[in-house]
Amino acid sequence: MEGPSVSPRGTVASLLLLLLLLLGRAPGGAGQPIRPQGPGTTCEAERQPRDCQDVYDRGAETDGVYLIYPGGPGLPVPVYCDMSTQGHVWTVFQKRFNGSVSFFRGWNDYRFGFGRADGEYWLGLQHLHLLTLQQHYELRVELEDFENNTAAATYGTFALSPNAISAEEDGYTLHVGGFVDGGAGDSLSYHNGQKFSTFDRDQDLYVQNCAALSSGAWWFKSCHFSNLNGFYLGGAHLSYANGLNWAAWKGFYYSLRKSEMKIRRL
Length: 266
Hints:
Number of helices: 7
Mean pLDDT: 88
Oligomer: single chain
Shape: globular
Distance between the termini: 79 Å
Largest sheet: 9 strands, antiparallel
């Protein structure tokens, strides 16, 4: 008994269909690639939040720790989101309140970040650069002393090395402006245009290493009017300018109890 005949035309059509499927293109689909829709795919990754504003836009409304993706899909970073201050949403990148985490650290720690988002921490210069590279941000600095007094300073523009091909080579240069006083005075505009320095990477304008002299890491010039990454010295201190200092508010001989640096998208 002879089997069913198969026409050459049908065989060719079947082979073409198989080839299209192997190439990931659907017949009749205008040559568009088939895009997978499962977990971890590009479509889901496109929805991953880059900052706390994105977290809020996706339904979160409570202050706390969330994951953001400033470096793109697959690179999560925990961060504290402030969703209540002044009715805005803020991404906190520096937080100090009890001295439990040492901030006298080297370049790599400040570049990549350290600490815990549910405690004291520094988000990292590279993460900050990537955030401010793609959006316009406002900076808010919040301070508290050991007598429960609070003050703030706001800057309408904030970015790190926005025009640099390599932000690290550029020193994560500070671009800040548009100061608005919230009782703290302006101790940051002096540092505008300066590179970030640590004790193991001196990029300031002073003859000595300001980071080593001031026991901190900052956008030092010659040397500073603010040093919020300095030693946690617990109020008044005898040493000069090496505490958690904001000179315009408390001078160079008072180390603050709390500091928060946070940005919001404009």
